[in-house]
Amino acid sequence: MREAMIVWGGWMGHEPDQAAKIVSDMLTEHGFKVRVETSTKAFADPAIADLSLIVPIITMSKIEKDELANLTSAVREGVGLAGFHGGMCDAFRDAVDYQFMTGGQWVAHPGNVIDFRVNIARPDDPVTEGIGDFDYRSEQYYMHVDPSNEVLATTTFTGEHAPWIDGGVMPVAWKRRHGKGRVFYSALGHVASEFQVPQMRTLLERGMLWAAR
């Protein structure tokens, strides 16, 4: 049986506890044994090297050097990493090794919760297959992203809330490699209720399955 670990915490405005329960149920339905932790200390456990998948759901927190070193080593050696929104790509703002692994870092969401459109960039990919472009209401993430990411979906900023970024095309979902490990990220999922949006849920579900070894 494949085993996954979810670690939740940090800023509670993203409802990480509720999201962790939803993600745990999703993975359990696919036959995973799921371990749920509430402290970054879990990343320092040498046993994570044997996991199939790690899902961080931690916004604006700190990670200790030994925790980060063990986590990045596990992914480099083949453990999958997958996550969403600030829970993965606004987790540890001062940890550049973490950002190097995830492929992006949140920097702004102009207008806060707004309506925007998500465009599928790779309709032929198994993660996005059958998902067309869709309208979405959430924080439209403006991010600093790694050019080596394989971008699966994007969004275009109108400039209504920040005129200088008008027309800017920003990745919404991507996959990448970090050493032997597969990494997936989706910027969607500000609060737990967004899992009710089929496209959001499907992207994350397929992305986690892709990333897991």
UniProtKB/TrEMBL annotation:
Pfam families registered for this protein in UniProt: ThuA
Pinpoint the ThuA-like domain residues: 4-211
Top-level taxon: Bacteria
Which PANTHER family would you find in this protein's record?
Answer: GALACTOSE-BINDING DOMAIN-LIKE SUPERFAMILY PROTEIN, SECRETED GLYCOSYL HYDROLASE
- How is this protein named in the record? ThuA domain-containing protein
Its lineage opens with: Bacteria, Pseudomonadati, Pseudomonadota, Betaproteobacteria, Burkholderiales
